[in-house]
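pls design
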């Protein structure tokens, strides 16, 4: 899992081939902290199938604003640089794995 900034978003997400999941989070967000170990597990288990990035909304406010992020955690799934799906709030590992696999 890779932490990215507003400056890196274009090269890491929009210009990437395949699936990229961006986890918009903040340090003070309880559900975001609960989601972190799940995202780390998925990143390891699905390496080669998907790249998972996390973006701190406090440190990188421009990209979340561009995508209308109003609640965190928000997960945006991109395929070949195009936004294909969004999930908001805490979800279980099984739900997230099925969601990712549906778009793979």
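designed seq:
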């Amino acid at each position: 899992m890779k932490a990215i900034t507003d400056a890196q978003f274009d090269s890491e997400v929009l210009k990437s081939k395949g699936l990229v999941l961006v986890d918009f989070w903040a340090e003070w967000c309880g559900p975001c902290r609960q989601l972190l170990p799940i995202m780390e597990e998925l990143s390891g288990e699905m390496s080669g199938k998907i790249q998972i990035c996390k973006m701190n909304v406090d440190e990188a406010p421009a990209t979340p604003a561009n995508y209308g992020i109003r609640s965190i955690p928000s997960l945006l799934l991109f395929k070949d640089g195009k936004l294909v799906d969004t999930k908001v709030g805490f979800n279980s590992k099984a739900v997230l794995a099925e969601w990712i696999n549906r778009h793979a």
